[in-house]
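Q: How do we represent a protein-ligand complex in a form that can be generated token by token?
A: Start from the inputs.
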Amino acid sequence: MTNTLLILPGDGIGPEVMAEVHRIIDWYGTKRDLKFDVTEDLVGGAAYDAHGKPLSDATMAKAQEVDAVLLGAVGGPKYDKLDFSLKPERGLLRLRKEMDLFANLRPAQCFDALADFSSLKRDVVSGLDIMIVRELTSGIYFGEPRGIIEEGGQRVGLNTQRYTEAEIDRVARSAFELAKKRNNKVCSMEKANVMESGILWREVVQKVHDESYPDVELSHMYADAGGMQLCRWPKQFDVILTDNLFGDLLSDVAAMLTGSLGMLPSASLGAPMENGRPKAMYEPVHGSAPDIAGQGKANPIACILSFAMALRYSFDEGTEATRLEKAVEKVLGDGVRTADLMGAEGGAPVSTLQMGDAILAAL
Amino acid sequence: MTNTLLILPGDGIGPEVMAEVHRIIDWYGTKRDLKFDVTEDLVGGAAYDAHGKPLSDATMAKAQEVDAVLLGAVGGPKYDKLDFSLKPERGLLRLRKEMDLFANLRPAQCFDALADFSSLKRDVVSGLDIMIVRELTSGIYFGEPRGIIEEGGQRVGLNTQRYTEAEIDRVARSAFELAKKRNNKVCSMEKANVMESGILWREVVQKVHDESYPDVELSHMYADAGGMQLCRWPKQFDVILTDNLFGDLLSDVAAMLTGSLGMLPSASLGAPMENGRPKAMYEPVHGSAPDIAGQGKANPIACILSFAMALRYSFDEGTEATRLEKAVEKVLGDGVRTADLMGAEGGAPVSTLQMGDAILAAL
Ligand SMILES: CC(C)[C@H](C(=O)O)[C@@H](O)C(=O)O
Ligand SMILES: CC(C)[C@H](C(=O)O)[C@@H](O)C(=O)O
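Then emit the structure tokens for the protein with 3-isopropylmalic acid bound:
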């Protein structure tokens, strides 16, 4: 089977960090005879600059065909004034929606060598390893009606949160499956106390549990309390299951807690394709960081670890994924640090390229 | 002018912590000749047990007449199975909605004596004093259509986020007014990158700023990034302005960061009444804590500080509010601790009543 990969570096630091992933991919081809058929294309502001929209139909079609899409980052102040439908983010949302990538996996992991970077106390975060499963193709990001409408002489901003039973069911299954390979615990978060969509969410998650995963430990928490508990004692969680909007906030909070924001990858998975592999897109959790773009300062690790997730979830190369993750850990343990990781210890930061060099050497 | 107060202790620890507020109120009457005309009534599960609904019409009518409502907490596992419309929370939401309490003020303040309680590092939180202004009567908590509907043979959970220009305008004004009395900075949070309601929010806030508060420093942040920044370096903020749903999550996260959750009060303010005082309700940020209810262990400080906010915002007794706040700080500085505040230092916790005693003595 060939391994096909579509790389979309995007905006800001996207291209820089993706350059290091290219070198890792080459290493696998040369040194481990693990070859990838790579195409590169545009997304976000870069696509808008070239085609006048944040994702061309041709790129969308390509994304549907490959085994995995690897995305850098989208957005930047240059595009702030664009019409809503043309904003860089729409390119990303179109990929998620049309590929139907309903399960967004966001590991929040604290790298031991970086635990002191967290604004939280060391004992609260060291060793932390939780997985947030965020529903990614429905909810308030996509529900209709939406827009800014006129009503009684004034404008009204409108968005709709909608979840069908089937949408909740499938993402719940993803969370339970993951939990079985981890610590067998799922905590589902919504606002069932004030939102009917939360009531349905809770009910369906419970039903999937009772019928298909009775041995996984399941709890439910209101999302606001969940945010609190994440900050208080995140290690109480294993897998957190939540909707698109709450998942956006909670996964960002969790990511920041680890102190390892520049390090965190994500995977967005859909249904299996004909070849048995899931539709998939991988992207770092960090954004396009326009303030440091083009300076060779960005940390490529989140993007490299996103490729590791691709090895694991798309190419069934779990051993190689672990090899890459261990190489990253070794480099961090050795004290190699990009600028974002410079703390009280001092020392000189390495460039994006030098971080790539170090990881290649560790491989 | 008489000072009228409706006290709704509610469920769980509500009645216990409210008992201490009663003693503080008595102290003001006797020692400072500041008298309150107090009525007490039921809300939440307690009201459901008595009347079969979480807020009777008579109580609602009373709430509309008084200068201020002081609420303890609502909810508990006993009521979990109740129909949505009968849940304790609906009582609270009805009060907010019918009194039109659109501006929810949630100070997140770190008490110096308690800084070590935070899961965050001391330097990140010590001295922290930010104010979250949450829109409280609109957005996805109240928008129509809502419910669990049948569609194509399956159930769909539905909620609607709606914001009118006027709703955004008035709460933005509250935030700017507050900022003027504080550090003159407002950061407004939404998801204008994916939600049209966020676009309108951003636009109206900017307009209110440019037209009426050009001297207040205004910034905009996506709510997920806002959650991150709250965890990373909360002291960058002064006033945070946000909608009902984001405000629910972000204010809880902010509260937890301070390590002073059992200490944090809130005020919910509406339009001025005939006597010039705003419609107002005050409540602690913590919940009903059913696990410790009835044991005399609960920390009454958040509820007492909610009364302090009432002194300031409803009764124009800023000096007396400060007196009460200083008394609380003194007691904490002296090392008096309820069970929730017991840390590594050790020592024996005081009861709810003893904490009340200590604060009365400090007054
Ligand atoms: C860029 C933006 C559209 C996106 C989102 O809100 O989903 C981002 O914040 C994320 O979490 O992946
Ligand atoms: C009890 C609940 C309805 C309420 C809310 O979600 O607004 C609470 O979480 C709060 O923040 O005051």
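Chain A has two domains: 1-107+264-363, 129-257. Chain A has a mean pLDDT of 96.
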